[in-house]
Design brief:
Radius of gyration: 17 Å
Strand content: 15-25%
Number of domains: 1
CATH architecture: 3-Layer(aba) Sandwich
Shape: globular
Order of helices and strands: EHEHEHEHEHEHHE
CATH class: Alpha Beta
Length: 255
């Protein structure tokens, strides 16, 4: 596989300070992209930039709250000002809140899930498409959804599942609305991956590994690099005819 599919391309990754976002940013930089890493916490974003630069890549950090339209517009503008274009955007920022039965889902947790996981993706799409549709070569957008909601159900996580089902619907709708503008929109839906989000309260990574042997057909969590590889495929010219897809990366859990 080519190690320079994104040479000269400008890539924006939200939620890039930790976990999947960091892995995705590192993967794009390793294939030649100039990466803007965005999120709410400057220290973790700077740590991601340091990792990219230590590996010989190019990256800058930019703080932004995806629930604020002005932040997203400023973020896209800063990306274009720094690197001249916005070729790829990965809308990864998301939160998990409100574990428990629906009847006990706190209003504040529900609102946070909607504000960040749903409205945050909508506002990001709007800012990104507004820029990409002005570019001769358009652009590609990948939204990070989840296998929970669009592809499977599980008791106790309905609020989160609803928010991610909305991301899947947004992805398909935006894909149809904007392919004529030269903007390809797709999604990746991970299952449990090697991040803190897949740990149960008080659970260690070793305990999670034991649990996952029974929880998925594959018998393990998905490596962050495996999710990143799926994102890079959808963003690349290898997927030039892939529009409105939702690629599930969950070790067969939703099969």
């Amino acid at each position: 596989m080519s190690r320079s599919r994104f040479a000269g391309k400008s890539v924006l990754v939200t939620g890039a300070g930790t976990g999947l976002g960091r892995a995705i940013a590192l993967a794009f930089a390793a294939e030649g992209a100039r990466v803007v890493v965005a999120g709410r916490t400057r220290a973790t974003l700077d740590a991601t930039v340091d990792l990219i630069e230590a590996a010989g890549g190019t990256a800058v950090a930019h703080t932004a709250d995806v629930s604020r339209a002005g932040d997203l517009q400023e973020l896209v503008g800063a990306t274009v000002e720094r690197f001249g274009s916005l070729d790829v955007a990965v809308n990864n920022a998301g939160v998990f809140r409100g574990a428990g039965p629906v009847a006990e889902l706190a209003a504040d947790d529900w609102q946070t899930l909607l504000d960040i996981n749903v409205t945050g993706v909508l506002l990001a799409l709007q800012a990104e498409v507004a820029q990409m549709r002005t570019q001769e070569r358009g652009g590609a957008i990948v939204n990070i959804s989840s296998n929970l909601g669009p592809h499977k159900s599980r008791a106790g996580v309905t609020g989160y599942a609803v928010s991610k089902a909305a991301v899947s619907a947004l992805t398909r709708g935006a894909a149809l609305d904007h392919i004529g503008d030269g903007v390809r929109v797709n999604a990746v839906s991970p299952g449990p991956s090697a991040t803190d989000m897949s740990l149960l309260p008080g659970e260690t990574e070793a305990e999670r590994a034991v649990r996952m042997k029974e929880a998925t057909p594959l018998g393990r969590v998905t490596a962050t690099d495996e999710v990143a590889a799926a994102v890079l495929y959808l963003a690349s010219e290898d997927a030039a005819s892939v529009v409105g897809a939702d690629l599930v990366i969950d070790g067969g859990a939703a099969a």
